[in-house]
Request: fold
Amino acid sequence: MSDDVLLRLAGVHTHIGRYHILHGVDLAVREGRLTMLLGRNGAGKTTTLRTVMGMWRASAGLIDFAGAPISGRATPDIARLGIAYVPESMGIFGQLTVRENLLLAAGPAGLHPGRLDGVFAIFPVLREKLHQAAGTLSGGQKQMVAISRAIVEERRLIIVDEPTKGLAPAVIGQLIAAFQALKRQRTTILMVEQNFHMAQALGDDVAVMDDGRVVHTGTMADLADDDALQTRLLGLSLASHQ
Amino acid sequence: MRALLHRHVLSGDRPGHPAVTALLILLLLALLVVPFAVPGTKSMAAASRIAILAVLAGSYDIALGYTGIVSLAHAMFFAIGAYAVAIPLAGGWVGWGAIGLGMAAGAVLAAAIAAAITLLSLRVQTIFFSMITLAVASFAQVLATQLRGLTGGEDGLSFSLPAALSPSFHLLPGRVLGVRVDGRLLTYYLILLAALLLFLLMLRIVNSPFGRVLLAIRENAFRAEALGFRVIVYRTLASALAAAIAALAGGLMAVLLRYNGPDATLSFSVMVDILLMVVIGGMGTLYGPALGAAVIVLAEYYLQPALQGLADALVGIPVLPALFNPDRWLLWLGLLFVGFVYFLPAGIVGSLRRRRG
Reply:
C-alpha cells in the first residue's frame, strides 16, 4: 500500500476557530480504488475532506496529492489539480440549469459531447432534465447532478461526502449502480458514507475515524467479515443493516 | 425571428413571464416615442432619467443580484462618471472628445477604485464590507464638496455641450410630427441609444459563462471554489464591471443635466433610489431594475400631479382631499414601496417568474 497512493495525509491537525477537530489524521487513498471513510457522527470525516480541499487549513501535518504537497494551497488550485469535491446535502447550484451546472464543472473548454454521453449513460434521467433549473429537481436527481459535475471532466480523484444523505432507498440503489460504473472505469474515489449497505457494496479500502483520528485501516471486505471489529469501531455491525 | 432576437440581442435571457415581456415592450416603446407622443421638457427629462437609471440600477444588480456584493458606494461610481464628463466640459473643453474621454476616464477610474475596495475588503463579512463601502462613499462626498476648484463644491459644475446637442441647433428645418428636431431631441435619442447598448451589454455579461460563475458564487462561494473558481477574482471583476457601467451612466446623466453636483449624483438619496429600483424590480433579473427605475422615476415625476388631481376631484368630501394633498406625496410613495415589497416580495420580475414556476 505505498507506490499506488494518490492522496496521503500524515499527522494532519485542523482547528476550526478555537476547536481542535482533527488530531493527527493519517490516511492513504490508493489509485483506482474506492476508499470509504467511516466513523460515528462528529468523528471528523467531513472536516478531513474539507481539509484536503483547502476549505479548512491544516494547522499541522502533510497532505500530498500525486506526490506533491497540497496543504496550504487555495481551494481553487487544489480543484484544478484534478480533484472533484461533491459536498453533502446535494451541493448543486439551484438557480442554474442542469446544463449550466455541468458547464461550470467542465472548465473553459466546455462540455465534451463524449463525456456528456458518459454522464447520461450513468444517469439517463439527466438527459431530459438538461435545461431544467437544478433547484427544481428531486433530491436524488440533485445528487445525480452533483456527482455528474464531478465526472463530466476527467478527474484524478473524486471526493464525495455522504451522497445518500436524505435520499430514498430506490435512489440509493441508483447511486450504488452509478458508483459501480465509475469503479469499473478505475476512478479513484474517497467517500464518506453513513449508509453501511452502500459502504459495503462500494468500498475497496476502508478507514475508520474516531475523535479526529483514523483508528483503523484495511480492506472493506475484511471489515465486512468481522462483526466484532465493526461493533468495536462503529458501535454496530454491518449485518444488522442488511 | 423571435429566437434570433432572444439569442443574439437579449443574449438568451428570456423575460420569463408574458407580463414582464409586455411591460418591457411597453417601456421600450414609450421611451422611443415620448418626444413625439408627449412633447415637453418634463416628459423627455423623465424618460431620459428612466433610461439612465435603468442602466445604473442594472449595473448595481450585477454586483448585488448576481454576485451578492452589498455595496453602498454605487452612487459614488455614478458620480465619478458624471464628474469625469463635467470637469473637462466645465473647464472649457466643449467637444465630443471631452465627453468621450470623460466617459472612458470615469469608467476606468471607477473600475479601479471598485477593484481596490473589493480586493482590500471582500474577505470581511458582508455587513462589514457594506460599512466599508459606506465609509468610502461618505469620504467621496466630503471630497467632492471640499475640492471646490475641481468639482465646484456644493454648487457643482454647469457646462455647455457641443453645438449639435444644444437646444439652438436644428438638424432639420421645421417640425417632424409636430416636434422640432433640435439638439435637445438629439441628446435624448443619443442617451437612449447609449443606455440601450449598455443594457444589452449587461445582458451579455450576465448570460455569459462569466455571469453563470457569478450566480454560482452568489449561491455558494465554497462550492464555486471547489470547482476551481477563484471567488475573489470573480467578485473583483464583477465589482469593477458594475462600477464602470455605473460611471458610464453617470456620464450620460451629466450630459442630460448639463450639470453635475453632489446632490445630482453623489448623495445618499441616489444610493437609496438605486436600492429601491433593484428591490422593486427584482434582484438578479436585470430586467427588473429597468422596470424598477421606471416605477421610481414615474412616481417622482407624476405622483404629485396625480395626487393634486385626485384632491381636486374629492373637494367637498371630508378628510380625503387633505389625505391626497400633493404635499403628502412622500407618504404615498412610501406606501407604494411597502405595497411592492408586501405583494411582490421578489420584486416585479422575480415574483412574476416565480408564479409561473
User: Anything to note?
Assistant: Chain A has a mean pLDDT of 88. Chain A touches chain B at residues 53, 55, 74-76, 79-80, 85, 87, 91, 93-96, 100, 103-105, 107, 149 (CB under 8 Å). The first strand of chain A starts at residue 5 and ends at 16. The longest helix of chain A spans residues 169-184.
